Amino acid sequence: MKNIITVLVLSIYTTLVSCDSVATPRYDFAEVKSSSQTKALIAKMILENKEENIDSTSSFIDLTLKGMHYADVPIKSALITNSYTLLTTDTVNFSGKKILEVLEAEKGLTNQTNSYSDDVEFEWKDEIETKKLEVNFVNGKHLAAFGNKDYGKLTITYNPVYTIPLAKIHSKVKVFNTAPKYVLNIKSYNSVFDISINDVSIATDTDSDTFNLNNYITGPNSSIKLTAKTEDKTIKKEPNTYYEDPSFSIQIIDNSTNEVVKSIEKTSIRNNIPVNLKIDFNSTLPYYPEAWTNGTDLRNSKDLKEKVIALYTKLGNAILANDEQAINDLFYQKDFEIQQLDFDTNFETARTKWEAYLTMLLNTYKYTLAKDFDIEFNAGGKLIYTYAKDKSDMIILTGKNYDDAFNHFLYQPKGTNELKIIR
């Protein structure tokens, strides 16, 4: 009878301890979606836990309050900084497994990222936030054999919210069943090339081996003109020595399917005489940009140089004025068409470019323009490219620990009198 009573007492005590160790959920980090909401949650914690003397002014707030959780997964500690929040789950009740399941239900399945330890890591990204989860195995083995003491470390970074259209191009990119990405691949020995596509010069004396073509396609039939030349003419035939003529081979492929659209077998350049080729190919796309197709023939424009200088002056002044809307207006069509032609719906592409523009605005304190330059006409005079003679580029930006330069393809839409940036 004494043994039975002892067992009952121990059972009741164990139950009481277990219930007391699981705090009532009060502070749910899963509901926080921004830095401002994080601050609001901290304010609530401070108000309800005055005895803890939480320093809200610190840039590193380390919290171990009862009731912290992430969608009902108990959080043992929370480190909140100006740039990220780090949540560490408790080490009981399979919390490592549970936090992974919660995040997969919230954000969807994702592949493991590279890890330098035996632990496993996952990452989810969207416009609002980036979440990185590290599952630490304590008495578990792997994802198929979790232990009850395994725990998770969740790092949350909130992304800045941009409303400027240039930062949200992905939301305008159309999705199609097919998304061809035409690429010119060249294998060569001792050769350089002049290359144009659809009467747009894209390379001169280049030894590069890969060229993306979509940005210069405006219809279903395209043509590449290529001149292959000897790169080093000092290499000559010598008696009793091995000599190989300069040579090259070409493939146009659709990178989305790896289909070979057109190919040119190995061709030699003999006696340093350039080889000229015209390669027609089917360039069907589900989307064709307006690009410069609605442009004015600029070959007879008497004030063209003044218009070029006016455009780059406008760009330089917008940069110095930190005018985000002007930068959007100058670059939107170019950046949109390029991302659409890549059929790229990734939010990070436009965001990364926009943040590069912001860096440019923030750091530039001076710009310098080229005043002496040559103009190259492309696409029947509708598209121009300028080659600065007195500077390295058409516009050179100078800033504190920052420098950059720009030179773009330009066109003038019909019915207007100003040049626009298009590539």
In brief:
This protein is an alpha+beta fold and 423 residues long. The protein has three domains: 2-158, no CATH class; 182-282, no CATH class; 304-421. It contains six helices and 24 strands.
Blueprint (SSEs and pairs):
Layout: H1 2-21, E1 27-28, H2 35-48, E2 60-63, E3 68-70, E4 73-81, E5 85-89, H3 95-107, E6 112-113, E7 120-125, E8 129-136, E9 151-158, E10 182-189, E11 191-197, E12 200-206, E13 210-212, E14 221-230, E15 247-254, E16 259-268, E17 275-282, H4 304-320, H5 324-341, H6 347-363, E18 364-369, E19 373-378, E20 383-388, E21 395-399, E22 402-406, E23 410-411, E24 420-421
Parallel strand pairs: 1-3
Antiparallel strand pairs: 2-4, 3-4, 4-5, 5-9, 6-7, 7-8, 8-9, 10-13, 10-15, 11-12, 11-14, 14-17, 15-16, 18-21, 19-20, 21-22, 23-24
Helix pairs in contact: 5-6
Walk me through what this model shows:
The chain has helices spanning 2-21, 35-48, 95-107, 304-320, 324-341, 347-363, and strands spanning 27-28, 60-63, 68-70, 73-81, 85-89, 112-113, 120-125, 129-136, 151-158, 182-189, 191-197, 200-206, 210-212, 221-230, 247-254, 259-268, 275-282, 364-369, 373-378, 383-388, 395-399, 402-406, 410-411, 420-421. The protein is of the alpha+beta class. The protein has 3 domains: 2-158, no CATH class; 182-282, no CATH class; 304-421. Helix 5 packs antiparallel against helix 6 (347-363). The termini are far apart. Mean pLDDT is 93; it is low at 1-21.
